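Long-time lurker, first post. I've been practising inverse folding by hand and with some scripts of my own, and I keep getting stuck on stretches where the C-alpha cells seem ambiguous. Below is the full C-alpha cell string for one chain I'm working on. Before anyone asks, I'm not after the true native sequence, just a reasonable design that respects the backbone. If someone could post their per-position residues I'd love to compare against what I wrote down in my notebook.
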C-alpha cells in the first residue's frame, strides 16, 4: 500500500517549462550591453546568463535600437522579457511587470571638457550677459541717477558750476560726470561745497565698484575656464541637451522646460556634444561614467550630482510566470556573491 506521507509530499517548485528558448529583448548600451564580434557582453548580459542558469532555461537575445521598440516588443509578445538599462518607473509599471532592482543608478550631466573650448571669447560674452553682471549694472545705473540729481541740485546755482542750470541738458551732464567718476575717469570736479563732498564720497564708491567688478569678472572667467558654463541642472535652461528618445532622461528634461535633442542611440548624443550641436548630454550616470573613462576620456567630463535616482530592472509582461523565478534567482546571486563579482567586473573604478 502507498504511504499517506509519500502521497502528500509536495512537488518541488520549478520554473515554467518552455518549448523553445526564452526570447530576451535588449539594446546596446555600454557597459550594460556591449557588442563584441557578433556576441553580446556587458553587465546586464552576464547577469541574465547567470539568472538563466539558476532557473534552468535556454534563452536567445533579440536586439532593439531604442527603449520604445524594446517595450513594444514585450507588449506585443515578440519577447518574453527585456534586460539592459531599463529604469523602473510608475508609468511603465502600469503596463509591465518588473523584477527586483538589478542596479541602482540615476541621471547625470555630461559636458565637453573646458580645455577643448576654442577660445575664451564665448565665456567673455556670457559673462557680460550673465544675470549677476546685469544686476550690478542695474544697481550702478540707479546710483548714477541719484548722484547726478544731487550734483545737479548743488551745482546749478553756483556761478562757476560745471552743470548747466536748466534740467535739460544739465541732468545729462550730471549723469555723464557720475558715470565717469564711478569708472574713476572723472576730469572735472564740482565747485560747490556740497558738490565736492558728494564728489569725494562718489570717488571712493567708484574705486570700490571698480575693484568689485574686476574681482567678480576674474572669478567668473576662472570658474568658467575650469568648469565650463554648465555645472548643474540650473544651468541647463536655454541650452540644447541631447539624450535618447523615449528615455526617462528625455521626460525629466521636458518636465523642467529644457530644450531636448532626442536621438535614437546614445552614441548619437555623444556625437552631437562633440560637434557642438548640443551643449550637454543628460543620461544614466553609469553609462556616462563608462564613456567618460573610456572613449570620451579627455574630451568630456561629468558635472553636478545625480539629478534623479533610478533603479534598473528586468521588464516582463504583466502577470508573467517568470517574475517569481527571476526574483528568486536574483536573491540567490546576491547572497552567493555572484552579483558582486559581476558588479566588480564591469564597474570597478580602477579597471574603468
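-- Answer (accepted) --
I ran through it position by position. Result:
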Amino acid at each position: 500500500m502507498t504511504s499517506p506521507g509519500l502521497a502528500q509530499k509536495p512537488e518541488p517548485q520549478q520554473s515554467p517549462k518552455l518549448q523553445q528558448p526564452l526570447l530576451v529583448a535588449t539594446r546596446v548600451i555600454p557597459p550594460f550591453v556591449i557588442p563584441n564580434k557578433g556576441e553580446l557582453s556587458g553587465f546586464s548580459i552576464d547577469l541574465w546568463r547567470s539568472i538563466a542558469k539558476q532557473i534552468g532555461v535556454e534563452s536567445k537575445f533579440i536586439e532593439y535600437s531604442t527603449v520604445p521598440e524594446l517595450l513594444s516588443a514585450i507588449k506585443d509578445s515578440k519577447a518574453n522579457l527585456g534586460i539592459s538599462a531599463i529604469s523602473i518607473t510608475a508609468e511603465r509599471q502600469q503596463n509591465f511587470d518588473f523584477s527586483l532592482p538589478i542596479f541602482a543608478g540615476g541621471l547625470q550631466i555630461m559636458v565637453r571638457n573646458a580645455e577643448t573650448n576654442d577660445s575664451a571669447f564665448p565665456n567673455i560674452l556670457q559673462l557680460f550677459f550673465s544675470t549677476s553682471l546685469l544686476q550690478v549694472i542695474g544697481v550702478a545705473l540707479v546710483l548714477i541717477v541719484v548722484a547726478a540729481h544731487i550734483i545737479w541740485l548743488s551745482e546749478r546755482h553756483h556761478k562757476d558750476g560745471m552743470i548747466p542750470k536748466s534740467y535739460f541738458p544739465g541732468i545729462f551732464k550730471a549723469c555723464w560726470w557720475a558715470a565717469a567718476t564711478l569708472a574713476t575717469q572723472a576730469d572735472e570736479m564740482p565747485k560747490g561745497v556740497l558738490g565736492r563732498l558728494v564728489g569725494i564720497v562718489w570717488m571712493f564708491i567708484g574705486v570700490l565698484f571698480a575693484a568689485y567688478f574686476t574681482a567678480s569678472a576674474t572669478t567668473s572667467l576662472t570658474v568658467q575656464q575650469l568648469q565650463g558654463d554648465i555645472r548643474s541642472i540650473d544651468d541647463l535652461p536655454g541650452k540644447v541637451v541631447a539624450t535618447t528618445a523615449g528615455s526617462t532622461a528625455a521626460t525629466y528634461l521636458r518636465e523642467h522646460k529644457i530644450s531636448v535633442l532626442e536621438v535614437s542611440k546614445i552614441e548619437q548624443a555623444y556625437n552631437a556634444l562633440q560637434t557642438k550641436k548640443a551643449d550637454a548630454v543628460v543620461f544614466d550616470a553609469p553609462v556616462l561614467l563608462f564613456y567618460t573613462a573610456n572613449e570620451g576620456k579627455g574630451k568630456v567630463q561629468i558635472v553636478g550630482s545625480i539629478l534623479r535616482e533610478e533603479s534598473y530592472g528586468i521588464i516582463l509582461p504583466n502577470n508573467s510566470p517568470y517574475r517569481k523565478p527571476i526574483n528568486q534567482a536574483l536573491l540567490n546571486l546576491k547572497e552567493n556573491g555572484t552579483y558582486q563579482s559581476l558588479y566588480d567586473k564591469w564597474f570597478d573604478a580602477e579597471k574603468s
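A couple of notes from the structure itself: The mean pLDDT is 83. The CA atoms of residues 156 and 166 lie 8 Å apart. Happy to go over any region you disagree with.
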